[in-house]
Write a structure and sequence with these properties.
Two copies of one chain form a homodimer.
Chain A (H helix, E strand, L loop, with lengths): L22 H4 L2 E5 L3 H17 L2 E2 L6 E5 L8 E6 L2 E6 L2 H14 L8 E6 L5 E5 L2 E6 L3 E3 L10 E2 L2 E2 L4 H13 L3 E3 L7 H4 L6 H11 L5 E5 L4 H4 L11 H17 L5 E4 L16 H12 L5 E5 L19 H6 L10 E6 L22 E7 L15 H9 L10 E5 L15 H12 L5 H12 L5 H12 L1 H8 L37 E2 L19 H6 L9 H4 L2 E2 L10 H25 L6 H33 L11
Parallel strand pairs in A: 1-2, 1-3, 3-5, 7-12, 7-18, 12-13, 13-14, 14-15, 15-16, 16-17, 17-18
Antiparallel strand pairs in A: 4-5, 4-6, 8-9, 10-11, 19-20
Chain lengths: 649, 649
């Protein structure tokens, strides 16, 4: 009855579920109680592990009990150990599945000593990956928009992939780190993708079927213009009865095909996508229309808050893209339906290596919110550079969370594709894993998660391998920040593809992304007193902290203020010397990491070692390019020589 | 026997051959003597004109005699008028064809008063257009690389166009301005295009057949790697016997298909194209191999001198792209076969709005040279801006020509496509016409050519239309220069597509295109004394003139020197004030031209007027963007305010 555990094709990396990760559990006498499809999944997993490592599924004298006491949807489980018996109890198959993978993570420790009964429960009910995968290859963006890991796991050349074994394996990896929802197509919905909603829903249903045994619900990105594009209506006005009927009918047919369908993801009135503005309606009107269509079935609409003017005039200093999401959505707080989730990028701009946390997140107390992170490394090295984002995400998730989390869900843009290592750069797997674990427990220590990932992915690794991995990953986000855009200024990237430096690349563009560097200083004045007023969008104490260059944290100084190159940072260095120093340091740190990796050649599988080593070459080349372009640009502009006399071109 | 005069499809503009242009001639009694295919063409033209305007082909008492006395290939003709009879005499059909179009150009004046017998003879034997047309649509470059006039006249979606009537009409337009050779495909030869040389030569033969009646020989761009790509050889080494045999065989088959085939055009070892360097051979070796294959049939190889390092390191100040063509080719002077023509871009860089004339042109006295111009406006407004290049080309052609022209041929990259106006911007037709006429007579006054074009294209135009056209075209090149890159600095364009400003767009790139602007000054030191030494590639007096900022002409100052913003030009203005002034002036000039055009609405056909008016809107928008970006960039860098207090952002 239960599906077998998915089998990876030759050459595909098992990521954090290598066979060895199941050794401790697979050697036990295991008793499984309960029924239902996800219990069946646990059964198949346990049976497979026992077959490999000499354990057995038993009906008495177990060393491990996995028990589902009912069939509800709860994801919680209780784990304890007493008298040589480890027990996992849940009130349904979902909880049991997470409990099972928790035991896998614990490894041998799950079967040692005593362990007090403790309930484990995810802090966030929806832990989701958005795939920006195109069905048809896009002429500019390709098969996966901002994808750096080969093709799509779901689609190839205009069709769903026939073989779903890899999708099943993907679902298994996601379940093992706690992810429970996937949107299977790009938020920019082109012609072929639009039709997934209607006549091509069968393809989505097949994917949903492959992900379901691992507790993952499938979501679909849809175009707001669907009633026109697909339904032949003359309008997509969310208050038009015909439009609402069309969505109700379309949604009913979706649920016929996928009874546990998660819902819609919508990018509306954003970067050219259609939306309610065309009809003089608000985004609440738009989102609520879709929420109404989904409500009878328990579905949710994820409505992205990434709305701004992408045809701005660079000469216009009054408009500030950073303000846009807050200005658009705060007036609508309280107007969104309960099953309309506003999906907010973690920063006010667009996934830069350093941004403040979006003030919108703390300002929508009457609206369900999802915070959106970007696992795919669009602006953070595109999986050619090592950049482990755990520390950044942790900072974001802890911001303003003293009185409870100000959001309900966590979403990340996936970094996975059909690459043999799943993520292009083998070490970028750590980002995917970390995201899942932080979504389960946003206050978790990212360093602990990294250790967990190392332990699972490299089971039985000698100490120097674990140490080496930790040393090249742990500080890699700050290293990347050092050799790229300084002090929160952002967007000094090549236009279009966003890889590599171009200090003025977005400076005279319509995208609202400026640094205003001149011969005297650099940065954007976003204070209330003299700037765009963005700092005033924060609650206290942050509004005050960000308002003044004296109190603003160094790492965000140029995001909030335009300061002279001679401005002295809290670190004691001037801005210009900070720019030079960090850029030299960043490259040196990459050089060191590359050496550490080279030293691990004897303890890492050859293909994996080679793949990472090759990417370090590119990372180092690119880091040097960043260093030299940024330093040259600011030296030419400021005229201030490096205090340490290093080479600036 | 003779083909009829080509008929244009509905809506296609007749350019400089409207019916009215034939009125003066078409009303006469015309006697035609001689035989051969091109005499037949003249016969068909004259008959058509007479049928329309009431004249007649007669055997006695003619008012116009068109006589070919033989059947040689000479393009010269003799024109005179005496006792009420105009005579055109040539020693073959080619000369007679050019004589015929000369009479068309003269209009009524051809039949007035007396006219001394005078021989007209082109200064250059080959007057050629290179089409950068792709057979298959290129994923980045499209159907026509750097094409701004719709699709290709020759190719569509991977195949030769079936209907060749438009090609015949194109040939007729070219003959009427003096062009006698066309290369039908892009110098970047991709997979589909490579095969035109072999199994697809029939498609080229069809085009050649359509162009032949108007005296135009067809040339083909080929890949140097053809023996490998098409012939399955393991090498393309030009000294390898098998390779030479392969080319000899391939060329023999080309001439079987096209007996008057012109020859090959080759871009080798340039921007990624294959070439002889891979085999340790010189460009003379490469060119001479192809020349040897072509020699038995009277064909020519055009070997492009556009060879430079396009993977330069911007940090490396010693390498200078401007030096490259001279450094590569001067050592080879005298080594090229007689039918190997070295095709040299007019400037040392790449068709910028202002460059010095390439020193290579005067340095190859033992090598046949073609100077290459660019009619397609890649860097000069892409046929969205009015930029009549006659004055620039005239400057180029007069440079160093005191003791005779230092080159034998003139080539331009065509600006024509399947657009109804041929050139996208209707006024860009003037560039194509001017090129042809300058190729015939390089010392002609470009203003006179412009008047000629106006007279033909707008026959019987009221004076204010002719004045208006002259005023918007005559100074348009200098206007474009004013609002774009100042003082010869070049390349401040958006990377890739090259439209619109990006001051640093190529500053940190591998393309060898830098301006080195810093807070103190701008420009490239190419002097012998302190710079790259490029100035020393010129003969006297230019080596001295360019060597010093004092003697260097203002318009080339930043090409040759790095100077402070406060440097005082010969004009009396500082460099920085010159930048501001010219950018404001340039935009004002566009505003005035736009108004002039608007005032002509009642005397220009509506479609043409609307097309130009619409492009003026874009030109003005773009010119303002140029003005503001350039001014802001240099203000932010220099800190020097505009002396007249105008708005700089």
């Amino acid at each position: 009855m239960s599906l077998p555990v998915p089998v990876l094709s030759e050459g595909v990396d098992p990521a954090w579920l290598p066979e060895e990760a199941f050794r401790a559990l697979g050697g036990r006498r295991i008793l499984i109680r309960g029924s239902g499809p996800l219990v069946e999944t646990v059964h198949a997993e346990a049976a497979e592990a026992c077959a490999r490592f000499g354990g057995a599924l038993v009906s008495k004298d177990p060393e491990l009990v996995l028990e589902s006491t009912g069939d509800d949807e709860s994801e919680a489980f209780t784990l304890g150990r007493r008298d040589g018996r480890t027990t996992v109890t849940a009130s349904g198959g979902r909880g049991l599945l997470y409990g099972f993978f928790h035991v896998v993570r614990l490894g041998a420790a799950a079967f040692e000593g005593e362990r007090q009964l403790r309930e484990h429960r995810p802090a966030l009910a929806v832990r989701m990956l958005d795939h920006w995968d195109n069905v048809a290859v896009h002429p500019v963006m390709g098969q996966v928009e901002r994808g750096y890991a080969g093709g799509s796991l779901f689609w190839a050349d205009g069709r769903a992939r026939g073989d779903l074994e890899r999708v099943r394996a993907y679902g298994r990896l996601l379940a093992a780190c706690g992810i429970n929802a996937v949107a299977v197509n790009n938020v920019n919905v082109h012609a072929a993708e639009a039709r997934l909603l209607t006549d091509r829903i069968g393809e989505v249903a097949d994917i949903a079927g492959a992900l379901r045994p691992y507790g993952i619900r499938t979501h679909l990105s849809v175009t707001f213009a669907a009633p026109m594009v697909l339904g032949g209506r003359e309008t997509a006005d969310p208050l038009d009865d015909g439009v609402r009927e069309w969505w109700a009918g379309a949604t009913a047919r979706v649920y016929e095909a996928i009874p546990d369908f998660g819902g819609y993801v919508v990018k509306a009135d954003s970067e050219g996508q259609p939306g309610p503005f065309a009809y003089g309606r608000s985004h609440a009107d738009g989102a609520n229309m879709l929420a109404a269509a989904l409500r009878p079935y328990g579905g949710t609409v994820h409505w992205r808050a990434f709305v701004y003017d992408h045809r701005q005039d660079w000469r216009d200093r009054a408009t500030d893209r950073a303000r846009a999401a807050y200005d658009h959505f705060v007036p609508l707080d309280g107007e969104f339906a309960a099953n309309a989730v506003l999906q907010v990028k973690h920063g006010p701009m667009d996934f830069q290596v350093r941004e403040p946390v979006s003030p919108l997140i703390s300002a929508m107390s009457h609206t369900a919110l999802a915070v959106e992170l970007q696992a795919t490394q669009e602006y953070t090295g595109q999986q050619r550079h090592v950049c482990w984002l755990g520390p950044m995400w942790s900072e974001v998730l802890r911001f303003g969370a003293r009185d409870g989390l100000p959001f309900e869900e966590l979403v990340a843009v996936s970094n996975a594709g059909d690459d043999p290592f799943w993520t292009g750069h083998p070490l970028a797997q750590a980002n995917l894993y970390t995201f899942g674990r932080l979504a389960w427990r946003p206050d978790a220590d990212p360093g602990g998660i990294l250790d967990e990932w190392i332990g699972l992915t490299f089971p039985g690794a000698p100490g120097r391998l674990a140490d080496g991995l930790r040393s090249v990953l742990d500080g890699s986000w700050r290293t990347y920040e050092k050799y790229t855009a300084p002090l929160g200024v952002g967007f000094m990237v090549q236009p279009g593809h966003h890889y590599g430096p171009s200090v003025d690349g977005y400076e005279y563009s319509p995208w609202g992304t400026y640094h205003f560097a001149d011969r005297d200083g650099v940065g954007v004045d976003r204070s209330r007193a003299t700037g765009t007023g963005y700092a005033g969008q924060y609650a206290k104490p942050w509004a005050e902290v960000y308002e003044s260059p004296e109190s603003c944290p160094d790492e965000l100084l140029l995001f909030f203020h335009h300061v002279p190159y001679g401005h002295v940072l809290k670190s004691g260095r001037t801005v210009i010397q900070h720019i030079y120093d960090t850029h030299f340091e960043g490259v040196e740190e990459v050089e060191r990491a590359r050496k550490v990796w080279a030293s691990l050649a004897d303890v890492v599988a050859p293909e994996r070692h080679a793949r990472v080593a090759e990417r370090y070459e590119e990372q180092l080349r690119s880091a040097r390019e960043w260093r030299d372009q940024i330093n040259s640009y600011f030296f030419r502009k400021s005229g201030v020589p490096d205090g340490r006399g290093r080479t600036i071109y």
